[in-house]
Automatic annotation (TrEMBL):
This is Uncharacterized protein. The lineage of its organism: unclassified sequences, metagenomes, ecological metagenomes.
């Protein structure tokens, strides 16, 4: 039993059991443990509202008492609402007192999960292939004004923000959940909420480095239960949200792109290795709850990359009449799906040896030998190895090519291996003549040396290479067991291919030749889009100006301006190197969101280069009148 002692302004708590009763006199304090003054006089009503203890003062005011905050002789009390004073001992003044106390409640939950392949959705709500994450902080905020029973804004009705973390009993059940939230205000209006996710400090699988949040597939939070419902936050300003497509470009941008570490075939990492994202937070769109129900709402898909450094090593064993391929995934935190293609003479569909080609999965931290036998042919042997990362059966990222060309005669021994791998900002060309020992043969007879003629074609223009100059042109001449390494300078965005021919120095009638490419040399990329949004209101004129600054970007972006999830302007395109201003007619307390996305139409490479030397263009202010007609919103 709870009561108020009038003369001392204290709270009386009476506890009953079967044989006796006990009471305490407690001093009221606020949430900061400071003395809280409650009205003098009579309290004409008290009630229990879903476990909440409410007192009504005849002098005016509703007060909530929190028994679970009792500490020593203190108890927390909070004023919920103002009410009119009454001389009657009913504390309510009948129906003239508007109700400002939540009466309809609901529960809400959601998930944070890893979107390994960056698809924007997962295979199932729970128990799917992409695991949920423990330890993600979720802040839920009420985004609409709470109205009393007379449709007036309540000054104080209770909490408007809640913070929880994703947790659960198993990996497939980690979730965030908040219970007993107001679902409707006292005038019957739906209440709109928004969820903010922060994965800072969350528990991620070994080797996984988060880079942000995955793309969104649907506009509404309730459109799908298996997709991601958040936009990546890129600044502290609440008026700007950036689409994951733009954020992904920010994360993937490098001064020099992917760098291959060569071990005969080389290794490939198809994932970004840039630094941490600007922020670890993302925010959902608005959603509502259902009274007396538990509903699934905002989920957040987190993208990133694992450790992935697969290596394929080719060894030609003439004694065993076999080619061994070591598939090394020991430096990776995810599985690797290797695909081995074996060709004779040249890389053409008709020359693929299907019986010797195949796919093989190598687990994370593992090293396996390729399971199929590959007898060396009398002529040219070409082996291409492709690899893709895999996790729980889900393939991640694009295929990476780790390939070389080798041509071998075993009797008498003569073998040449050619490899060309981008090592930005150059192209590494390795030419190797294998020794008898490297072919697993006796030192005698010694393997032949070779004369190798190599021509690099860059956008169709030939360039002869070599360490020996003659009247007939440059070429390489290498004894068995030696190799040559060239770092070739190639123009960005040019197409390159290498044609080569090797001649046996002992038996010149034996020749080999091959072609690598054509391929695009793509190292440097234009700086990613990073538009900034500012908003300057002018209360005297009832106008406000949005400035969207795309002047530092070489990319076109689209913008949409929303007010309470309703589009009031856009989508419209802002070209690269442009600052665009939009003027809106507004009311007090209007709240806007600017959503930025990467435009489908982008400048070509030549235009990007021209943009780099151009000055910023300032577009004139544009006034929006016809699309904006709303009242005051929070």
């Amino acid at each position: 039993v709870v009561g108020v002692v009038r003369k001392t302004d204290q709270i009386m708590m009476i506890e009953y059991d079967e044989s006796s009763s006990d009471f305490k006199l407690l001093d009221p304090v606020d949430e900061n443990n400071e003395t809280f003054d409650i009205p003098d006089g009579t309290y004409g009503a008290a009630w229990n509202a879903n476990g909440r203890i409410i007192l009504s003062a005849n002098a005016g005011g509703l007060y909530e008492v929190y028994p679970d905050t009792i500490s020593g002789s203190r108890i927390q009390v909070r004023k919920l609402a103002d009410t009119q004073a009454t001389g009657a001992n009913d504390g309510m003044n009948c129906d003239d007192i508007p109700v400002c106390l939540p009466e309809e409640f609901g529960n809400v939950y959601g998930y944070a999960w890893i979107d390994w392949e960056k698809s924007g959705d997962r295979t199932a709500v729970t128990g799917g292939l992409e695991e949920h994450i423990k330890g993600v902080t979720v802040t839920l905020t009420l985004e609409t004004e709470y109205k009393n029973s007379n449709d007036k804004v309540c000054e104080d009705f209770g909490e408007s923000s809640w913070v929880v973390q994703t947790d659960g009993q198993s990996d497939s059940d980690y979730q965030w959940q908040i219970n007993d939230l107001p679902a409707k205000d006292n005038f019957g209006n739906d209440l709109f909420y928004k969820a903010n996710f922060d994965y800072q400090g969350a528990d991620f699988p070994y080797g996984f480095s988060p880079t942000g949040y995955t793309k969104r597939l649907e506009d509404e939070v309730t459109s799908s239960e298996v997709d991601s419902d958040v936009y990546q936050n890129t600044s502290s300003s609440p008026t700007q949200e950036t689409d994951p497509m733009i954020f992904r470009l920010l994360m993937q941008h490098k001064q020099t792109k992917q760098k291959n570490i060569s071990r005969v075939l080389g290794s490939i990492n198809p994932f970004s290795d840039d630094g941490s994202p600007e922020t670890t937070t993302a925010t959902s769109d608005l959603f509502i709850l259902e009274p007396n129900e538990t509903v699934h709402r905002a989920d957040a898909g987190i993208s990133g990359y694992p450790i992935f450094e697969p290596v394929a090593v080719v060894t030609i064993d003439c004694l065993a009449e076999n080619v061994e391929i070591s598939l090394d995934n020991s430096e990776s935190s995810v599985d690797a799906e290797f695909s081995v293609d074996v060709y004779h003479d040249s890389v053409e569909p008709g020359n693929l040896v299907t019986a010797q080609s195949g796919d093989q999965l190598v687990l994370a931290d593992g090293i396996d030998e390729y399971e199929k036998d590959i007898p060396p042919p009398l002529g040219v042997l070409i082996i291409d190895v492709n690899v893709v990362a895999e996790h729980n059966g889900v393939q991640l990222g694009p295929l990476g090519v780790v390939s070389n060309q080798s041509q071998t005669y075993c009797d008498p021994p003569f073998s040449v291996m050619i490899e060309a791998l981008p090592d930005c900002p150059v192209l590494d060309l390795t030419i190797r003549v294998l020794s008898s020992e490297e072919l697993n043969l006796d030192p005698i007879p010694q393997a032949s040396g070779a004369r190798i003629e190599v021509t690099l074609y860059e956008d169709g223009i030939p360039r002869r290479l070599g360490n020996i100059y003659s009247s007939s042109g440059q070429y390489y001449e290498l004894d068995a067991g030696l190799f040559a390494l060239e770092e070739l300078s190639i123009q960005e965005d040019s197409e390159w291919r290498i044609e080569w021919k090797a001649t046996d120095l002992v038996y010149p009638e034996r020749t080999m030749e091959g072609t690598i490419g054509p391929k695009l040399f793509d190292c440097d990329s234009a700086a990613p889009p990073d538009p900034e949004v500012t908003f300057v209101p002018d209360c005297a004129t009832g106008r406000g100006v949005f400035a969207i600054d795309n002047s530092e970007s070489l990319w076109n972006v689209d913008f949409t301006i929303k007010e309470l999830d309703e589009i009031i302007r856009g989508p419209e395109t802002i070209d690269a190197k442009v600052i665009k201003e939009i003027e809106l007619l507004l009311d007090h307390n209007d709240k806007f969101i600017v959503v930025l996305t990467l435009s489908e139409v982008q400048p070509d490479v030549q235009t990007l280069r021209q943009f780099a030397d151009n000055e910023t263009i300032q577009e004139p202010v544009q006034i929006t009148r016809q699309t904006f007609n709303t009242g005051s919103q929070s």
